[in-house]
Automatic annotation (TrEMBL):
Residues 727-810 form the Aminomethyltransferase C-terminal domain. InterPro entries: FAD-dep_OxRdtase (IPR006076), FAD/NAD-bd_sf (IPR036188), FAO_M (IPR032503), GcvT/YgfZ/DmdA (IPR028896), GcvT/YgfZ_C (IPR029043), GcvT_C (IPR013977), GCVT_N (IPR006222), TrmE/GcvT-like (IPR027266). Residues 432-706 form the GCVT N-terminal domain. This is Oxidoreductase. Residues 11-372 form the FAD dependent oxidoreductase domain. Belongs to the GcvT family. The lineage of its organism: Bacteria, Bacillati, Actinomycetota, Actinomycetes, Micrococcales. Residues 375-427 form the FAD dependent oxidoreductase central domain.
Length: 818
């Protein structure tokens, strides 16, 4: 194809003509951005889209963002033909999700309650009703099902073509047969930015590139250091010969326990498979010329799982097989999409890694991406799907091989609390790893770090059985929680993202991005937020001023990449250096009413309240080691964070344990950290708060200093004058028995008004506790909360609850400042 087909310049270039690229092009045009070129190296739908099974299922997630994407997609597929003249093949035949065990029934009841609040019509039905709707299935062993009548099926090729026609009609150029060789960039301040693309038909200058290349996304991104660790793997389905009497408008049936999904196809039955032992495909590089290809099936590996899947619909054994298909699909390490602007390359957007739900997510994802590109910020919570969450180690070949086998193999696994991924562990190891193991730590993966969830005791081996109910180890969890409230606990938090920010302009830059007053007195720590221009929270962190032009920034592990990128983009041409010191620094927390007494035995520093008040940060010597000692807390008690050189952290930990015996000290894990902070209603970015929240709606106005100018200040002032109608509140169940895990629905006077964002068990408060988002017709205030009768729907059971804008534990903060 000649270069004359391509323009010399466009505002946006989309690379990849699958359903995601076509949807982004379509939605950009509807946002008024029509100076767009979609470039496809072969023909539209080549790669993965053309062979997708075409399920349109909304059920199964407790993410408001992902549910919203699916609901929007379903609605779009039903109306697109009227706009474009091309059918999408959408047929709302309904979907049944089968349940064969009590753990999955508990999970699905919670999911159903959550998604009903968001508008999904879903009913729990029994085996008899399931048999009436899908008579070809054997209902043996099934206890229930969840029926979504509005879900169904769509034709992926027709859908893509309809989206592309809609985009073209509004001025978007869609060019096939042109490959992109590279993305062109230039250095722009502290970070490079996109300036164009180099194609087989000539260069295109542009402001924004969108990598929608599916299973090729990783290798395209690697050329410029963009981490997109998706990996292709084999995916199977078969289509039987004609089955007499099969209903072409019958529902889709899914039975995850038998690894299968089933629907009518051409008079026969499609049996799709997510086998428990999966296989990666082309770990080193996806061939550039692979388009509408298939893969040779591995019968020995797949046959047992396929036989199990077919046994749910026995008639599939009695007819011949018309088609046996194996093709590649790509998966990310956490089975969530890779979405958004690359953290280290401005103007480079990613929409890839859809994990076998690309078709059913395509409409909503296209809308979100288009809005983000056109307006500069997403209008939904993207903290869980932001491409910035990935780290370079996840690109390693062995990591991708092991992880894709596991995540694809667990596609249909139940999400019972305690279930964890086991591959790719131990990339980052705490400097006190051996000491935690010796104390009986139950280790869990925290953004690649091995960290203690709870402790079985010195010399003991921690055992955990996934469950929705109380377990024997709850006794250890409770003891760790109470020791922090009553004596002193020792917590390793070396996984926290830690950055040294230095230079003549460091204070100026940090002041500009921080809503709090961070560039004040030396030896002070400030809890603050970084905001977007619209007031949305981009980071929730602490900034410690160690000296003039010398700061330490600490953020949560999940926000590592995004926080670093936000700061680097703010630097511009300023004299600021940012060094990631996370791996070089141990963070040991000493928390509890006796923490001062314990530390006083190991340091000559005066730790009295008068000499070392709350928010002091000072370099002192502890057990002969020079550390940065910060008086701050995330558990609501008197406490200190110690930032220690990695090589010396174990010595400090050991000294604290030895000397702490007299004060009742014990190691404390993340399970207790969560229950302690939720009793105090402390927020956690990416869990309780996200980019759609503001300091006003999140209840964080106390952390803002309007006396200085900062990004988002105008939005903060405007919200104080006109408050939003959503607010975060603390919630406590009145019954001590039920457990909350997050995503439970909040009801006021019997009406759903929000949901629990994160939850734990409050051992001091005596019941399950959490932080919830609730909405009203007007501003949410204490009177509105007090006047309502509050309940929480826990897996279909409504439990009375109390709600509060103030922390229910130590609301005045007296213990923190004691």
């Amino acid at each position: 194809m000649s270069s004359s087909v391509l323009p010399d310049r466009a505002r946006v270039v989309i690379i990849g003509g699958g359903v995601i690229g076509a949807s982004i092009a379509y939605h950009l045009a509807h946002e008024g951005v029509t100076d767009v070129v979609l470039v496809e190296r072969d023909r539209l739908t080549s790669g993965t889209t053309w062979h997708a099974a075409g399920l349109m299922t909304c059920f199964g997630t407790t993410s408001e963002t992902l549910t919203g994407m699916r609901l929007y997609s379903r609605e779009l597929f039903g109306r697109l033909e009227a706009e474009t003249g091309l059918s999408t093949g959408f047929r709302p035949v309904g979907v049944i999700e089968a349940v064969g065990d009590r753990d999955r029934l508990e999970e699905y009841r919670r999911v159903a309650t959550f998604q009903r609040r968001l508008g999904l019509d879903v009913d729990e039905i029994g085996p008899g009703e399931m048999a009436e709707l899908f008579p070809l299935a054997d209902m043996d062993g099934l206890v229930a099902g969840f029926h979504v009548p509005g879900d169904g099926r769509v034709n992926p090729v027709d859908l893509t073509m309809s989206l592309a026609r809609g985009a073209r009609a509004l001025g978007v150029r869609v060019v096939e047969g042109v490959s992109v060789g590279d993305v062109v960039t230039r250095t722009d301040g502290a970070l490079p930015r996109v300036t164009g693309v180099r194609t087989s038909a000539g260069d295109i200058e542009c402001e924004t590139v969108v990598n929608c290349t599916g299973m090729w996304a990783r290798q395209l991104g690697e050329r410029h250091g963009v981490v997109i660790p998706n990996q292709a793997a084999e995916h199977y389905y078969l289509i039987t010969d004609t089955i007499p009497g099969i209903d072409p408008d019958g529902p889709i049936f899914e039975d995850p326990a038998r690894y299968g999904y089933y629907r009518e196809e051409g008079g026969g039955m499609m049996v799709g498979l997510f086998e428990p032992v999966a296989a990666p495909w082309h770990l080193d590089r996806i061939p550039d010329d692979f388009s509408f290809g298939t893969l040779p099936p591995d019968w020995d590996r797949v046959a047992p799982a396929l036989e199990t899947a077919m046994s749910r619909v026995p008639v599939t054994f009695d007819v011949g097989v018309r088609t046996f298909f194996c093709g590649p699909e790509s998966f990310t390490p956490d089975r969530l999409p890779a979405v958004g602007e690359a953290p280290d390359l401005q103007g480079y957007f990613v929409a890839a890694g859809l994990n076998s739900v690309g078709i059913l997510s395509s409409g909503g994802l296209g809308r979100v991406m288009a809005q983000w590109i056109a307006n500069g910020r997403p209008d939904v919570d993207v903290t869980a799907i932001d491409v910035a969450r990935f780290r370079p180690h996840q690109l390693h070949r062995d990591y991708r091989r092991d992880r894709v086998m596991e995540v694809l193999g667990k596609t249909y696994a139940a999400h019972t609390p305690g279930v964890e991924l086991t591959t790719g562990r131990g990339t980052f190891v705490s400097p006190v790893h051996d000491e935690m193991v010796a104390a009986g730590a139950r280790l869990k993966d925290v953004s690649g770090w091995e960290s203690a969830d709870w402790y079985a005791g010195d010399g003991q081996v921690a055992k955990l059985t996934p469950s929705w109910s109380r377990q024997p180890w709850f006794e250890q969890w409770e003891a760790e929680h109470r020791v922090v409230r009553e004596a002193v606990g020792l917590i390793d938090m070396s996984f926290m993202a830690t950055f040294a920010v230095t230079g003549a302009d460091a204070g100026t830059v940090l002041a500009r991005v921080s809503a709090g007053h961070v560039d004040g007195d030396v030896d002070r720590i400030t809890y603050t937020q970084w905001l977007g221009p619209d007031g949305g929270i981009e980071a929730d962190l602490t900034v410690t001023k160690r000296g003039e032009g010398d700061f330490l920034v600490v953020a949560s592990d999940t926000a590592h990449g995004h926080t670093l990128a936000w700061l680097r983009r703010a630097i511009g041409e300023a004299d600021v250096t940012v060094e990631d010191v996370t791996e070089a620094t141990g963070q040991v927390n000493v928390q509890g009413p006796r923490s001062r007494e314990l530390l006083a035995e190991l340091t000559d520093a005066d730790l009295s309240h008068e000499a070392f008040p709350f928010r002091t940060a000072r370099t002192v010597t502890v057990a002969g080691v020079e550390v940065l000692c910060v008086r701050i807390t995330y558990v609501g008690e008197l406490g200190y964070e110690l930032y220690v050189p990695r090589a010396d952290t174990a010595a400090v930990w050991t000294a604290l344990r030895e000397r702490g015996t007299a004060y009742g000290l014990r190691p404390v894990g993340l399970k207790a950290l969560g229950s302690l902070r939720l009793e105090k209603a402390y927020r956690d970015y990416g869990h309780d708060i996200d980019n759609t929240d503001t300091v006003g709606s999140a209840g964080l106005g106390f952390a803002v200093d309007l006396a200085h100018d900062f990004t988002g200040r105008d939005a903060v002032v405007a919200e104080r004058e006109t408050p939003r109608h959503e607010r975060l509140v603390q919630v406590l169940l009145s019954d001590p028995e039920p457990l909350m895990f997050g995503a439970e629905v909040m009801l006021r006077d019997g009406v759903p008004v929000g949901d629990v964002r994160s939850a734990s068990y409050g051992w001091t408060l005596g019941a399950a506790v959490g932080i919830a988002s609730v909405a009203a017709d007007g501003p949410v205030g204490a009177a509105w909360l007090d006047e309502g009768a509050w309940e929480v729907d826990v897996a279909g059971t409504r439990v009375p609850a109390a709600v509060s804008l103030r922390p229910m534990y130590d609301p005045t903060g007296a213990r923190v400042r004691s």
